Amino acid sequence: MDILVISGDNPLDIVQLEKSFPDSQIDVINQSDLNAKLLSDKLASYESGELLLVDNQADKIEFKQSAAELYSLVAETSDNWSLIYADYEVDDNGTVSDEHLLDHHIGRVRDNSDYGKAWLINLDKVKDVLPLADTTTQHFLYELRLRLSEVGELVHIANRYSGSPYCVYKAVGEQNVFDYLMASKESQLELEQIVTDHLKRIDAYLAPGAFYSSVPYANKTYELTASIIIPVNNRPHFIGSAIESILNQTVQDIEVIVVVNGGENDPTIPAVNEYLPGGKKYAAGKPAVRLIVLDINNIGLCLNAGLKSAKGKFYVQLDSDDQLTIGAVEKIVETFQEDDKIGLVIGSYEVYEQDAATLEISRMESIPVVTHAEWTEENGRNNLLRINGAGAPRSFYVDLARDLGYLDMNTSAYARNYGEDYDFVSRMSEHHRIGRVWVPVYKVIRHGGGTDHNIDRSTVDRNNNAKDEMRREAIYRRQIMNEVSNG
User: pTM above 0.85?
Assistant: First the structure.
């Protein structure tokens, strides 16, 4: 097979590569010289049936002696394949571990999906997708992978142990869900264009304004303006600050619904009781605080139980360890009033960090205000399929949630108290506009017991599996919507 290496700061050992792939022609392109035309022309120039594309831009890679035989036999025994990728080993300064990748399916359109550093490409298939877009200046492999998925199967060589065809030498870092915030706007826009073009080619793209309808509850009068629902388990030290941030809102015809899911012995209950009638922190003139106690730790169940009993017109999100800024509810409601087609409003937030010793919180200046600017009026609901985040806080009509079937209660594949509203946001965006509050109205508090940073790889994979399954269903729904619309 031919081999094309994209080389970076740690050049591949060509002698070692030749030993693993004898009689192969090896070409090297330096990443600094790479562009869409050069890569397209190079891929089109090969005449053999298979090409091993090696991404050596960042880390040293070493192939095992049997790699060529493995790749070749998998190609020989696979039908309609366009790309073959494999699990790999990671050598972190002598400590070797296995990197288990996820099986491909149509929902794996995230730009940070890991498909490894070495792809065997079916050259007959790749010529059907060339050239790559002239607008691609950074993310060539992301575009190539999506395009190849349109014309053939992406085959995964999985590994139990010692079954990987190559090893990557790099430091193994902790997973941080805020990493994507560091990407430049230019990079984000290019990634958005790539996934948008992909969705258009597979007929899962939703055109601006298509399928929107007015919310039937926009002019309906309710007992209260909003219900802020807080699902919580064993967080007595945080719940008070969360509640206080609601009681101090500029809009006061609201309610707090705290749904404790740790049963009657959950230590959060006494902290909430202080805000109920007879409690030390109860204030008759402030919004009412209501308590629901469940003994099943299921966040979707908590939110849906709160929604079923809510008296407010709108639901407003608040996690038990976070806080609303003063005026948050007012700004959210004003956004709903802009257009009766808006079914859901997404705000912006700032990230704070709690000092483990003093318990004081301070703004993390290294993380900019999170606006999720990819939620544009024209393309946000398509771009949502590329990223994991849907912004915070989220707010929607309570009655509209009932119409859409509520939020996921761990019935989606791989869902484990994660992404309970991701599919809901996607479904909502298919029928109603998404309103935006661009100023920060929410404080995300990072702390030692949080679940949004420094989590292990297996948890990240499970979470990605869950949302990718939701993406798969969204793509199928959207293809049907377009098919019906086009007659």
Answer: yes
